[in-house]
Every structure is written in C-alpha cells, then in structure tokens.
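Priority: medium. Attachment 1 of 2:
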C-alpha cells in the first residue's frame, strides 16, 4: 500500500492544503496532524472578536462538522511530532510511534517570542497564541482589571482595544519608538497611538521591562526606569518565532523559517512547507520574505498543494494584513519596509485615509484605514508606476 501524504500543522494553512489536495483529485491516504486538541480554527480572531466574546468556539472553527469524514482525511489532534527523518521519510511522535510518508507538508506556524525577564513564569503572564490563552485572558480584562501588554504590534494593540472596551485599566509597554513598527508607517503608528490614548490606554514607547513580581499571580511590572506598574494580567505580545525546528534538525535549509521555492518545495525531496513557517523568494520585492497573514496561509497552502501533485505553479503574492481596533479597520497591502517616498490621501481626523509607499516611482505598499476600495485598488496596482490622486 502506498504511503500517505502527511500534513503537520492543523491551522489555516494545513486545513486548506488538505482540502485543496482533495479538490485537485488526490484520492490517496491523507493525514493531518495537529498538536492542539482542537480542530482547526481561525487563530487571527483570538485577539479580536473571540476575545471580546462576539463569536464562540463554534464560530471560529475553520471547517464544518463532518469535514474530515466527508473528505476522508485522517485528522489526528493532540499529537506532537518530535522527529523528522528526511532521508527515510518518517516522522516520530511523542508517544514513541512513527509514521512513514510519501510526501510531507510542514504548516507548523509560529510561536510567541518570550521575554528573558525575571519572573516571566509567574501565573497571570500569558502570550496569546492558542484558544485556551484567549479564554484565560477574557475574564481578566473585565472592568477593574489591571492589564499590562508588553509589545505594541497589532496583536498587542488589538488586545488593548478589547480590554479597554471591557473597562480594564490598560498599559502598553513598547521598546521601540512607535507601535506596529514592523507593518505600518510612522504616520499610521502615530494615528493608532493617539486612538488608544484617546480611549484611555497608557501607551509607553521606548520603554523596557526589568522584571515581573508577585506571588500566586503576577502583581507588578517593574520598568527599567524603576517605575512599578500594578498588574493582574500581563499579555506578552513581542512577536513570533517560526516553528522550523523539525526541519532544521532534519538537515533542511532554514533561516527564520523553512526555505522553500515558488512551488513550496523545501531543500529535501518530497518535503514542502507553507504558511507562517515558510520563507520564500519574492521577485516582487527582490528578497526572501516570510509572511504571517491569513491571506498567505490560504494562498500559499493552495499553491503548495498543487506543487505536491506535480503541477507547475509559482507563488509571489502581494502580502495583505488586516487589523481592527476600536472599530477602525486597517488593511495593509504589500510590504512597506523599503520605500523612498510616501503619499497620504484623506484626513486622519475623518478616520478614513490611505498611505501609499513608493519606491523609484512604483507603488510598493499601501495602508488603508476604513477604505476597502482603496485597499483593493492598491493590491491591483502594486508594482506599477502609479500616482495616487489628491494627496494631502
């Protein structure tokens, strides 16, 4: 009997890859392995509508009841892969068992980057990565709660917005000179800092943590300045690290992610990667990139599934990201790290504007606030010589 195709990682990328393999006609054995006990769910909603209680566990499930049975997918939850032998095409598991595969797709995602700070293991300190983390946080952000969020990326700022909506006292501590630095311009960062401060959040920029202290629960956060901030809950939101250890240990090329080509192939025969854990060359941006977004998890997993079946495909997307804070919807198209000019259309006081990023006259990226039409237009025109109308 032929060995199965195996997918390790049961998040958005893994679930979509499994579905795509069936849709493309693969009718052999298919195994989807997830480390969490839950079936695949929409992780990006954890810091927004799930944390706020607007949606339930059932609402954020990626696939409906009967999905795995209907598509004849052997889904193995609460299963941890501990070893990969690329040459022998086998996986080893925490319980000592092994599994052979014909082809392997790694959609292992990422994990929170932890702080090397005294007291980081105290109860009440959590990184929001899993559904259980959100359920731990939710009752602790009610009115009267004292919440310190370490990290001013979009996840940290989304949690801050939800916590303030519940009436908690919220402090954001960010080591950099602005929030959401990795994905947004200074103009957008300034807008969101002002938005949070207007809603009562104490945003501390260029501020570092010295230690956490407490007994049965975290009680204080001491800053490098010596100042103490009272805390009942600390949410760590200092970025992520790709889960590429299996590949690295197996001799597969990695560099802040598993290196893959435009069809999702790793440097090992019949082993592929997609989603948050994969790094690929973007001709559009002239460098290797690793994209952490819903769009990338969906699109790259589909392209890679086709590549696993021998189809000639090529993946070079316009990366897209979305964040919602206090009802303000920020949509990001492209990567804005390398630009030599910007053009701002609209007015921040109207809560509707777009920041366009240009490089040598070409549109590289755009940040759109409450303007989905402009976002869609930017996606269409990125890479072209293009002049937005009506700059501020």
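Attachment 2 of 2:
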């Amino acid at each position: 009997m032929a060995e199965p195709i195996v997918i390790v990682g049961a998040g958005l990328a893994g679930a979509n890859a499994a579905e795509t393999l069936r849709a493309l006609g693969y009718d052999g054995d298919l195994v989807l392995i997830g480390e969490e006990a839950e079936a695949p769910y929409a992780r990006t909603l954890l810091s927004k509508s799930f944390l706020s209680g607007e949606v339930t566990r059932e609402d954020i499930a990626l696939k409906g009841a009967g999905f795995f049975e209907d598509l004849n997918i052997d889904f193995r939850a609460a299963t941890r892969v501990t070893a990969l032998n690329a040459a022998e095409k086998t996986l080893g598991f925490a319980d000592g068992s092994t599994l052979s595969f014909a082809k392997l797709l790694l959609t292992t995602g990422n994990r929170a980057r932890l702080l090397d700070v005294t007291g980081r293991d105290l109860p009440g300190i959590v990184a929001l990565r899993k559904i259980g983390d959100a359920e731990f946080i939710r009752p602790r952000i009610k009115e009267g709660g004292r919440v310190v969020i370490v990290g001013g990326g979009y996840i940290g700022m989304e949690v801050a917005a939800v916590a303030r909506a519940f009436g908690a006292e919220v402090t954001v501590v960010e080591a950099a000179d602005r929030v959401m630095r990795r994905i947004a311009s200074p103009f957008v960062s300034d807008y969101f800092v002002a938005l949070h401060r207007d809603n009562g959040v104490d945003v501390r920029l260029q501020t570092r943590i010295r230690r956490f202290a407490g007994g049965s629960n975290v009680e204080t956060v001491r800053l490098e300045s010596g100042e103490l901030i009272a805390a009942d809950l600390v949410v760590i939101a200092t970025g992520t690290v790709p889960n590429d250890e299996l590949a690295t240990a197996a001799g597969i090329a990695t560099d802040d992610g598993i290196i893959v080509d435009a069809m999702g192939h790793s440097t090992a025969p019949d082993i592929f990667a997609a989603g948050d854990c994969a790094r690929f060359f973007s001709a559009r941006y002239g460098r290797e990139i690793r994209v952490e977004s819903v769009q990338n998890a969906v699109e790259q997993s589909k392209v890679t599934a086709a590549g696993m079946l021998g189809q000639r495909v090529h993946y070079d997307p316009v990366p897209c990201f979305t964040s919602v804070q206090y009802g303000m919807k920020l949509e990001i198209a492209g990567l804005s790290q390398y630009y030599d000019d910007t053009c701002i259309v609209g007015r921040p006081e109207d809560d509707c504007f777009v920041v366009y990023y240009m490089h040598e006259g070409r549109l590289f990226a755009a940040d759109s606030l409450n303007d989905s039409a402009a976002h869609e237009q930017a996606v269409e025109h990125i890479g072209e010589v293009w002049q937005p109308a009506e700059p501020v």
